[in-house]
């Protein structure tokens, strides 16, 4: 069998993030608040996962869509700076690149999203020749990628036919319909957070949500922030409490968890170690401002060996 050139190909929404940090609470209409910082950074769940995978030393490519504008150029430059293969990134001069404004507090965050190119990527825009170069396909923000959404089962089927394993982080559903028909059965790994898992299943506890999702797909890892993460794969159940860090900004922590878990899975590590590595990546990202650049592979190894 021919050796794959890439470890992971990420099919992603692409957008910048404008992060408003240091808020004590989310603002009420008609009020004004001073904050610690407002920064322009690389955004999108898929790009942040791809960046974290690259930081862990994996060979990563990305498929997505940008506009021929300042935000689009910024995002492509970010990917190239992290040595992420951009052959699958298309530029459409008739569109505007997506953007998110993240209002971040110590406890949580709220996100205002302008969809732009996020909602325009279609199945025919995903270069399957690039997908075929990889061992694993990761899809991000299912509910935001509305043009691609109806064809996600087809994308996953084609990827598996090419020999790839598959994973998906659904993200939040702004429409709050929470329908994923025909998707979970084509996944090797499903990566919701606890709120998403509850909404998708109607179950209130992490255990019940995990069991419901595991009846539809062989691998599920549910992220629960400071409560750690819980996973089940091929009927094996594991829970990991995570790491205690001083939280600065939770942006991208779940995406970094995805990267750590996927990297460990591709390396053949057991389920408990996959959870542990995912939690380490998530913790280091939460202790850093911005969704990317929060750790190196050495940082992760030091944190793992310290406990």
UniProtKB/TrEMBL annotation:
<protein>
    <submittedName>
        <fullName>Ribokinase</fullName>
    </submittedName>
</protein>
<feature type="domain" description="Carbohydrate kinase PfkB">
    <location>
        <begin position="7"/>
        <end position="292"/>
    </location>
</feature>
<dbReference type="InterPro" id="IPR002173">
    <property type="entry name" value="Carboh/pur_kinase_PfkB_CS"/>
</dbReference>
<dbReference type="Pfam" id="PF00294">
    <property type="entry name" value="PfkB"/>
</dbReference>
<keyword id="KW-0808">Transferase</keyword>
<keyword id="KW-0418">Kinase</keyword>
<dbReference type="GO" id="GO:0016301">
    <property type="term" value="F:kinase activity"/>
</dbReference>
<dbReference type="InterPro" id="IPR011611">
    <property type="entry name" value="PfkB_dom"/>
</dbReference>
<dbReference type="InterPro" id="IPR029056">
    <property type="entry name" value="Ribokinase-like"/>
</dbReference>
<dbReference type="GO" id="GO:0005829">
    <property type="term" value="C:cytosol"/>
</dbReference>
